[in-house]
Amino acid sequence: MRYHSGDISKLCNVNKETLRYYERKGLIAEPVRSDAGYRLYPEDAVKRIMFIKRIQELGFTLSEIDKLLGVVDKDDVRCADMHDFVVQKLEDVRLKIRDLERIEYMLKDLKNRCPDEKAIHECPIIEALIDNVEEIL
Q1: In angstroms, rounded to a whole number, what is the distance separating the alpha carbons of residues 41 and 23?
Q2: Which positions fall inside the HTH merR-type domain (predicted)?
Q3: Same domain for 93 and 63
Q4: Contacts of 39 (CB under 8 A, 6+ apart)
Q5: How many CB atoms within 10 Å of residue 129?
């Protein structure tokens, strides 16, 4: 079965420009054209686009997705390449978690500085942020 770009964009919940962008970036293969010049996407393009969208939701960048799909598309040394990719992504995630935990600690501290009276001119949160700008950066 083949899908026109309008059909696949609705089915995958992406716009037509996104499809063309994925084509230009090599994330999906350029589709064949009908006699009238319409793009016709194969069935496997649906799975691939859904995979791309889902993995983006999980926090992967398009560059990482391109690398991941490159590993998937290769026939040789797939497992070793995938292992290296996963190890690197795991380290990236751990770093983000540590950063998010620091942000959480900072936000809790700022919230605790806030007095019960919130209609005052001098905001302790702003003052703390200004005083600790080096720590934040």
Answers
A1: 11
A2: 6-71
A3: no
A4: 4, 5, 19, 31, 32, 33
A5: 14
User: Which amino acid appears at position 25 of this protein?
Assistant: K
106 and 62 within one domain: no
Residue 137 pLDDT > 60: no
Count how many residues are written for the chain: 137
**How far apart, in Å, do the first and last CA atoms of the chain sit?**
53
Question: Into how many domains does the chain fold?
Answer: 2
H helices of 58-123, in order, are 62-73, 78-113
Which one has a higher pLDDT value, 46 or 113? 46
Residues 60 and 108 grouped into a single domain: no
Is the pLDDT score of 51 beyond 90?
yes
**What is the residue range of 110's domain?**
83-135
In the block, residue with structure tokens 């040394």: 77
Same domain, 108 and 75: no
State whether 72 and 97 are in the same domain: no
Provide the mean pLDDT of the chain.
85
Give me 16's structure tokens: 């037509």
pTM value?
0.66
